[in-house]
Design goal:
Elements: E1 11-14, E2 23-30, E3 35-38, E4 43-48, E5 58-63, E6 66-67, E7 71-75, E8 80-81, E9 84-89, E10 92-97
Antiparallel strand pairs: 1-2, 1-7, 2-3, 3-6, 4-5, 7-8, 9-10
Length: 105
């Protein structure tokens, strides 16, 4: 597996699929599966059983995983997706956006 270019709390844009062009914040990343869960994107219907915590039960919308290959880090300044480069900042390696040069870490 390659080095992860998308991490938790990054803002990403979907570059293919039914949610193409939408942006959201990454809630979790699973590098082994190559997927990420993005807030408010790729929603699926999930039935909830009636319990003490949810006495109503019913059907709710829930985020499902999206392939990392369908996501790209979002550059808010340029309002489009950007590739990632790694640069040295002292002893640290920092992820930066190629379009604006802004550091992500």
């Amino acid at each position: 597996m390659s080095i992860a270019r998308i991490k938790k709390n990054d803002t990403v844009i979907v570059i293919s699929g039914s949610d193409k062009g939408k942006t959201g914040k990454v809630l979790s990343v699973s590098p082994k599966k190559g997927t990420a869960i993005v807030e408010g994107l790729h929603l699926v219907k999930k039935t909830i059983r009636r319990t003490e915590q949810t006495p109503q039960g019913g059907i709710v919308d829930r985020e499902s995983p999206i392939q990392l290959s369908n996501l790209m880090p979002y550059d808010a300044d340029k309002k489009r997706g950007s590739r990632i480069s790694r640069t040295q900042n002292g002893e640290r390696t920092v992820r930066t956006l190629k379009t604006s040069g802004k550091a992500l870490d």
